[in-house]
Specification:
The longest helix is centred in the middle third of the chain and has 53 residues. By secondary structure, the chain is an alpha+beta fold. Helix 1 packs antiparallel against helix 3 and helix 6 runs parallel beside helix 8. A hairpin with a 2-residue loop joins strand 2 and strand 3. The chain has two domains: 215 residues, no CATH class; 197 residues, Nucleotide cyclase, GGDEF domain (Alpha-Beta Plaits, 2-Layer Sandwich), CATH 3.30.70.1230. Strands 1, 2, 3, 4, 5, 6, 7 and 8 form an eight-stranded mixed β-sheet that branches. It is built from 14 helices and eight strands.
Length: 428
């Protein structure tokens, strides 16, 4: 979504993109519900006020049109507003708000005109015309009609008022011309105001939608860098984020023979191959509940049990490691490349946190991380190499193959184990 999708028709102001127009209409309908209900109450109050003035102040009017007609006109108006007020609580009001308000505007125009037609001839030009002029103001400002609907309702109301009274000989040519001119000027002014209000609302809508999309894009980028809980904490506070966990399983994977492979491929082909493999790994991390930490060259690092603690962190890491071996074999078969993985696991305590102010990263530290890296570097291509600590957590769930005591750089003698794909069938 970009600014071009919010291009507007200069006359109707409708968005060129139908989805944006629908979204705008829905949003404006929701925003208009409360003001429209207030407008109904105001119109009802004005109806009552008009009745009081007519019957108690301008008594000559009552003589001209009759007390019963005055009362019936008031009751009809109040019933009309009550019906539309009740309709505003129905779902159809949100779906057809502009059509409903346009029909109401037309009905009120008819009512105002018919009321004026029953006035004494000597005050039609003054009182009836004044009521219609005030009502045109309501059409453009209070009824929350958008520009095309407001303009159509305003001009139809003015034309019906002048045409109806002139057709019944209740208004002479001079009075009709004067009324038409003034109501036309009022409509032009109302159209200008409505146009500016509508275009301002649409620009605000466009800006907020674009801002929302940019915010979503920023959120996605942030979540590609940090785990969701850490990202939320980082947005909420500028304090350093660091936590200690006693039980996680760290996974390291490395593509065997990557250096000679990279020398034989173009940069683009190499990046495409790595992207395909690591994208498979990312999907597996989501599937098995691991958190990807980082990639370094052809090495892939993930952790089970962070940032959300999981009691089954070791089995989750083992299942993902087995799936990584399968995924690598599948990519190798599809591309014809000689690809194999070495994977190392270790379980234990780590410290995790966010470091840096620019290009910050979520990282792990501790002996568990170093040992998992050593398991990978001392491992066997096409197998998963892990410590006795991890083996104890996997025992009873997977068939393990003891590798025996071996010298691990920086660690000394360690008893380690292997998982191969055939031997890794879960027990039970």
């Amino acid at each position: 979504m970009n600014a071009d999708t919010f291009r507007m028709n200069r006359f109707t102001l409708c968005f060129a993109d139908a989805d944006n127009e629908t979204a705008f209409a829905d949003e404006q309908a929701r925003k208009a519900v409360r003001p429209v209900r207030i407008a109904f109450v105001v119109l009802g109050a004005l109806q009552v006020g008009n009745y009081v003035l007519t019957t108690h102040v301008f008594k000559s009017i009552v003589v001209g049109i009759g007390a019963l007609n005055t009362l019936l006109t008031t009751i009809e108006g109040l019933l009309l507003y009550a019906v539309f007020y009740a309709l505003s609580y129905r779902p159809i009001f949100l779906k057809r708000q502009q059509l409903i308000m346009f029909l109401l505007a037309c009905l009120i125009s008819v009512g105002v005109t018919q009321h004026s037609a029953r006035l004494p001839l000597d005050i039609i030009d003054a009182r009836g015309f004044t009521i219609m002029l005030v009502y045109i103001f309501f059409i453009y400002s209070v009824l929350r009609l958008r520009f095309p609907q407001a303009a159509l309702a305003g001009w139809l109301g003015a034309a019906f008022f002048v045409g109806y009274l002139f057709g019944l000989d209740l208004m002479g040519p001079t009075a009709a011309g004067r009324s038409a001119l003034i109501l036309g000027i009022a409509n032009c002014g109302g159209m200008l105001i409505s146009y500016q209000m509508d275009i301002s609302a649409r620009r605000e809508f466009s800006a907020m939608r674009l801002l929302g999309k940019e915010r979503e894009r920023s959120e996605r980028l942030l979540l590609n860098i940090l785990p969701a809980p850490i990202a939320e904490r980082l947005k909420a506070s500028e304090d350093s984020i660091a936590e200690h966990s006693d039980g996680v399983t760290v996974l390291f994977a490395d593509i065997v023979g990557f250096t000679p492979l990279s020398a034989s491929k173009t940069p683009q082909a190499l990046v495409e191959l790595l992207n395909r493999i690591f994208s498979e790994f990312d999907a597996l991390a989501d599937m098995h509940g691991l958190e990807k930490i980082k990639t370094i060259g052809d090495a892939y690092m993930a952790v089970a049990g962070l940032p959300n603690p999981r009691p089954d962190h070791a089995p989750r890491a083992a299942r993902m490691a087995l799936a990584m071996l399968d995924a690598t074999a599948r990519v190798a078969a599809e591309t014809g490349e000689q690809l194999a993985l070495r994977i190392g696991l270790d379980s234990g305590p780590v410290v995790a946190g966010v470091i840096g102010r620019r290009k910050f990263t979520y990282d792990l530290w501790g002996d568990t991380v170093n040992t998992a890296s050593r398991m990978e570097s001392h491992g066997v291509p096409g197998a998963i190499h892990f410590t006795e600590t991890t083996g104890m957590l996997l025992q009873g769930t997977f068939r393990l193959q003891a590798r025996g005591a071996m010298v691990i750089k920086g660690k000394g003698d360690m008893n380690t184990f292997l998982l191969f794909t055939p031997e890794a069938i879960p027990i039970g």
